[in-house]
Amino acid sequence: MSASGLAKRMANLEPHRFQRGENYHTRKAAERARLESEIIAELGDLTASDRLELRHAVELLTRRPRDHVDAVRCSNAGSRIIAKVRARIKQREDNKLSSAPRPPGQDPAAQALALLLNKLPDGV
Questions:
Q1: What is the pLDDT of residues 8-21, one digit of tens each?
Q2: H/E/C letters for each residue in the chain?
Q3: What is the pLDDT of residues 66-80, one digit of tens each?
Q4: What are the structural domain ranges in the chain?
Q5: Distance between CA atoms of 27 and 6, rounded to whole angstroms?
Q6: Are 39 and 82 in contact (CB under 8 A)?
Q7: pTM higher than the cut 0.85
Q8: At a CB cut-off of 8 Å and minimum separation 6, what does 43 contact?
């Protein structure tokens, strides 16, 4: 093999080489931490169970699949978990908004009662 061929191969390997004190496990842990922090920053305030599920999703999204079927399964499962957590957060926000106290004139139950009382005949 010529020197130029060897130089090309070494140049292709350069970005993938490990630095001193770095190995596959430390690089993968850094990638997981980065992805998890991005997702948490995007979603905002999370409960402990949400964080646990997101950690599982990150594990699925960053694992090294054995074949293409496993890759698709991991990607889909991770995406479903993230979508489920997003839906749960949205539901909690909607519940906070609906549980906020309403003025008496806007309460649907009070409006229905007023309509019923106004429509009843005078003798009843």
A1: 776 666 666 767 77
A2: CCHHHHHHHHHHHHHHCCCCCCCHHHHHHHHHHHHHHHHHHHHCCCCHHHHHHHHHHHHHHHCCCCCHHHHHHHHHHHHHHHHHHHHHHHHHHHHHHHCCCCCHHHCHHHHHHHHHHHHCCCCC
A3: 999 999 999 999 999
A4: 3-119
A5: 26
A6: yes
A7: no
A8: 50, 54, 85, 86, 89
pLDDT tens figures, 48-61: 999 999 999 999 99
Q: What is the dihedral of CA 7, 12, 13, 17, to 10 degrees?
A: 120
| Structure-derived torsion over alpha carbons of residues 55, 48, 77, 41, reported in degrees to the nearest 10 | -70
For residue 82, the one-letter residue type is: I
Q: Give residue 85's identity as a one-letter amino acid code.
A: V
The alpha carbon torsion through 22, 59, 54, 37 (nearest 10 deg) reads 20
